[in-house]
Model the fold of this input.
Amino acid sequence: MTEFNFTGRLSMFANRLQKVWKHFGKIARKQQIQCFRFYDHDLPEFPFAIEWYDGVVHAAEYKRRHGMDDEEHEAWLESCRKVIATVLDIPETTVFIKQRQKKAGRQGQYEKFAEEKHEKIVSEGGLKFIVNLTDYLDTGLFLDHRITRGMVRDEAAGKRVLNLFCYTGSFSVYAAHGGARSVTSVDLSKTYINWAKRNMQYNKLYKPEVHEFVQADVMEIIQDLPAHTFDLIICDPPTFSNSKRMTEHFDVQRDHVVLLKKLLKACTDEGVIFFSNNLRNFEMDREALPATVVKDITGATTPFDFQGKLHRSCFIIRK
Done:
């Protein structure tokens, strides 16, 4: 293994990066995957989630008490940037570093903290997606749902699809590509609704008569969903949320049965729901749901680059 010319802990970081980059890069090439995570808080002293986006790197530093003042911390980040660029043999200008802070509900995802708008088009599953490497907490493409998106595409042919909390619409694009009869995408953020539409347009899939993009509070929308309307629903709610139409905060563990009953009512007789959330140790109340199938597909939808480090749950529910 190559020894890097860094001192102390930076050398340790470099050697760890080289090891995981070689391992995950080999698997990604074999599976023809251009975007993947290859480092996730592997070393306590370097608390990053580092992802490869087809030629550039997105590194998110988990917020912590590091004991450095602003100037020292900035210098430390620049040293880390140099290590990443050296190990991957790429220019330092292609390594984008952010500080990942704990979200204040789902709204934290929408907060903009830069104005650089460094966008890139990346490939996944034969489709193209716009990622933003600078301006938001996340890039616009959740890599841990790579397999789930493929499953939705496989289910979508001829179906009326509803994508709730659609974010940048990657599930919607996959559903359209899979031959969905119609796709309705709903999110609170105007920014993400526009982004979702751009993703659909970029893949030359957008048909205004069958692809609807709705800026609205999902928690309000679900109160009045018409019965027997959708064949396939994708729902990835926040762990906690509040809404004008709810008397108290939404808690995914406490309220998932009420939520899913509303979605099942909106499903046709053969309807399918893909339901996921990021609550650690989430427990599905299967017995309370009027469904023929409630299957935990968390393991089956966990990609190679998230094995052992993914705390979301994923289920397929059939009416």
About this structure: Residues 263 and 280 are 23 Å apart (CA to CA). The chain has two domains: 8-102, 137-318. The radius of gyration is 20 Å.
